[in-house]
Fold these 2 entries.
Entry 1:
Amino acid sequence: MVTQQAPEPARRGRGRRPAAEVRREVLRAAGELLLTEGMAAFTIEKVAALSGASRVTLYKWWPSKGALALDGYFDAVGPTLAFPDTGDIAADLTAQLRAFVHLMRDTRAGRVMPELIGHAQTDPELSALLRERYSAPRRALAVEALERAKERGRLREDVDPEVVVDQLWGACYHRLLIPDQPLTDEFAEALVRNLLAGIGRP
Amino acid sequence: MVTQQAPEPARRGRGRRPAAEVRREVLRAAGELLLTEGMAAFTIEKVAALSGASRVTLYKWWPSKGALALDGYFDAVGPTLAFPDTGDIAADLTAQLRAFVHLMRDTRAGRVMPELIGHAQTDPELSALLRERYSAPRRALAVEALERAKERGRLREDVDPEVVVDQLWGACYHRLLIPDQPLTDEFAEALVRNLLAGIGRP
């Protein structure tokens, strides 16, 4: 039996809300909670209280608190990490990578993401969730942008976009997880310059 | 007081060994123990027993078991990850990256390293040790090889070798830690091809 516990401010005076609206508010609350308090303090109960949704609903929609946290994270960072599409692939990639570097360097996301990836190394369930709900969809968005550039003839025909993802965003994750060198705007710019123009001399 | 516990086979009948020899055997034992049993089972006591060195010596030379484990790891993988220098930078980088991919994909190193990097995300002391005793020295070796190629006129003058490290080995760590895509020989080859020749079309 589910008992009503604390008052749920977001629900007060609203009556029944459409499921899509509840879902949006749950995701927003989950992202906010994760980014302000970190994974250690993240619980389904707190998200329920913050969003005004019932815990039963949350447990019905998300199989675990890890799944809810990752969906909340994706929802929170998605707009910041959108791919611009001006047709200039160098400028678009640089802008997106600068936004990513900024997010990791200057916000709580830069502490939460390494924590999640770190725990995933010894927690197979979290690892699967992280890939399914965060890294694979983010990778797909990047591949899509690179495929568009290929279709427009801006990238070589024989280039595998999946490898490019590792040489741009993967390079950033490397500095995030093993911080021998800093994450800077100049780094984001050099990544794109190196890869588009090539670093070799004939 | 240090009491003699189990028999220590490696020391039997040898008398006093030179410090350099003891150090070599300790590192070999540490690397072997880490790669066969993982970090969870790694203790200074076991390394002492395996190497025939006294625990007092080990505690004198290494500030913690993490430091000893990382020095043992570096010692164990060093020869496999040596940088060939044939003068052909594309071939040399590809050979080194293939050796790295092989080590991570086909040996216990590919389980130990993610475990160490994972724990380092929430353990500042391990993080500092990992950088000081493993990633920074490995990075320095790669930068050295890239600087040689620059001096020989094989890489563009304005290229920062530190960024290249993230776009080659960092890209591999990305697939190791977030395994959305596999670590393969073809991947190692594509990393070098993309970066040397560039992926853009004018």
Entry 2:
Amino acid sequence: MHVLITGAAGMIGRKLTERLVREDGLNGQAIDKLTLTDIVKPAAPAGYTGKVKAYAADIADTKQSAKMVSERPDVIFHLASIVSGEAELEFDKGYRINLIGMLGLIEAVRRTGEDYHPKFVFTSSVAVFGAPFPHSIPDEFHLTPLTSYGTQKGICELLLADYTRKGFLDGVGIRLPTICVRPGKPNKAASGFFSGIIREPLAGVEAILPVSESVRHTHATPQSAVGFLIHAAGLTKEQLGHRLNLTMPGVNVTVGEQIESLRRVAGDKVASRIRREPDELIMRVVGGWAERVDAKRARELGFKAEDSFDDIIRTHIDEELGGNIAA
Amino acid sequence: MHVLITGAAGMIGRKLTERLVREDGLNGQAIDKLTLTDIVKPAAPAGYTGKVKAYAADIADTKQSAKMVSERPDVIFHLASIVSGEAELEFDKGYRINLIGMLGLIEAVRRTGEDYHPKFVFTSSVAVFGAPFPHSIPDEFHLTPLTSYGTQKGICELLLADYTRKGFLDGVGIRLPTICVRPGKPNKAASGFFSGIIREPLAGVEAILPVSESVRHTHATPQSAVGFLIHAAGLTKEQLGHRLNLTMPGVNVTVGEQIESLRRVAGDKVASRIRREPDELIMRVVGGWAERVDAKRARELGFKAEDSFDDIIRTHIDEELGGNIAA
């Protein structure tokens, strides 16, 4: 089996690659070839014995996307994307990468040949939804994004479904919740604090909380996100039907419950490293985001997130901190 | 006021142009200039005293769309579209006109200048919805089109909302129900019989009914469709908010009720000119279409369709047949 990952140098792309190599396959099928692309050259995975092509490529350049699929990967994980904040600030860049990039890639697939229909896993986002919301967002809720990023993801979902319906590829779109705890340095994303208030205190560093503790949100770990991608690749057309863009499950908690969880798992001293510093802009942005999602269909199809926020924190401590908490 | 109509040579485009000329304005504002474009040159309207530019242009050619907006029309009615059946058969052509054409036009608006934000009325369709449906489709129902045409319309709706949110234009999208009674010759559209079973018998010609009388659908006259366009152009950004793609109201009836209505309005002899000839393919296609729509928000915003199917038939007799029924 040949697997292509776009956006392979990103956090999720690297974790997906590592897991495929570690498990020596995808849903039980051996992988003899990996193609890894990103705007910077992705690292070749350690310990992999199959063929690897890893190279830098601009996803919005149709020659490059044609090259990516020219060797007919059986499964494509399309992760390449400009993130929400950047797509909002740089309108042209966001549309170029997130929309034109997707269109170029699926057109490249279509033009590769009538006998070529790869599995195509697309990472969408709950940013396709925009306030006002019902108590919990049902699977049948309409897409009214309030960002260009969410708009681009919503458009790609529609394209994915139509290209699948026409038989050009075998698509599945997964709407990721907020990924928490995101490893690495703090960034300036409006959502950054959801991870920051866990990651920084665990590392002995003070974190800033810019919103009220009553803010509610849905989270899944990077490990769950990778699990969603792998599970999605194993679903059949028959299981998916025409409605192949699925809201993923997650752990639904308030910020106050996140902090309580941190206290339970890591103690009072760690939990005290959070400083309240309300930020009107962040509060307003976060106020337009989805709080609860039903994710009924995804659960029925076997997608699994963590059971509790305690589990989310423990996963971070085990996987990213080698089990060590800064006292 | 300067008004641009794309798709001006089509049935709705011509009726819209005629009405604007007849009323000598748009929602009470005088129109001193009309730009009319289509893939064939639209006819200049009779009796109009303002400036008219009517010319043939390919909407998907970005030089042409830039030309269309170069004189900064205050209101744009974007009607140009490849119809459902054709978009399904000619995949590239459908995407080229319905998606790339729209993208080119709104990009042309954006690039015309930061001080230019025209009212932009986009004609969408209930084809953005795909079965299975609840009893009646609510305004918050998700878009799961089962045709490339519906997909393209759904994508344009998302683009329209994002370009409006960013302040590049002042958009409103109206999802038209099936237009009935469509004047002119019978065509091969799967939906053609909805009009055919009224139009042909009234003209003394036999019509074929390919589906069961229990098939339910929502209809509005061409006159109502033009009314929707004009009403949409008069709505403010404040009235619309972020959710600016609206499902239009219509008269909801079964085919049996359509025929009963024809009998009431035109008599038994006319109603007897319908021959039942079941067509499996048409039955299957029509089975995926929306039956009932709530259109709650559109009604609240003042959009009005006919009150009954009798009214729909009477409008056809008055407007298209000069009051005459073939005995």
